[in-house]
Amino acid sequence: MRLRFEPPGPPLEEPTDAMPPWLQERLFDQRMVVLTGPLTGPSATRAAAALMTLDALGPEPVRLQLATPDGDLAAAYGLIDVLDSMGAPVHAVVTALTGGAAVGVLAASARRLAYRHARIRLSEPRAAAVNGTADEVAAAAGQYLRELEELALRIAAATGQPRSRIEDDLSAGRVLTAEEALDYGLVDEIIGTK
Questions:
Q1: Is this model's pTM higher than 0.90 or not?
Q2: CATH code at position 69
């Protein structure tokens, strides 16, 4: 018998409004990488390539703009590994709603900022669809739980919050305002406050 494990909700899709090349070039010249829409394998790969290139060009900080409301754990870990290996510091800026696996990317950044009206949703990331036997589905579920635990540990280390609180907030889907994220320890500074 073959079972299929499906995540709740519609599948993650790539945004259709691609950024014009001239704008990408201007942002790149300013050492800025923009990550919008769901965090998927292709979007994480593009962001990782840009970050690694900017890292190779010099030690100045790189600004990573985040507006990623949901995402794939595997894609997030690929990007987190790049952030961990960079010599140039990455300053992540939450510009809109950021949540799910992308919160791990925020936590892995050297400096974490948010615009005043940004929101951060602590929520369990989607699990990838798995086809296969019951044993294969069980193994994939076990792997997902290990990755979710690693995400909670990463966020706990960045914020100083107890792991149990992080796990509870991820499970509940807690949404933080920029001010709440500052108090929580998830951001270091709010942009746009007087």
A1: no
A2: 3.90.226.10
Q: At what angle do helices 41-57 and 21-29 cross, to 10 degrees?
A: 40
Token reading at 27: 């942002």
Query: Contact 40/67 with Cβ under 8 angstroms?
Result: no
Confidence of residue 2 (pLDDT cuts 50, 70, 90): very low
- Does 62 reside within a domain? yes
Domain that residue 56 falls in: 20-191
Give 67-114 pLDDT, tens digit per residue: 999 999 999 999 999 999 999 999 999 999 999 999 999 999 999 999
Single out the residue of 18, 147, 8 nearest to residue 80, CA to CA.
Answer: 147
What total number of domains does the chain contain?
1
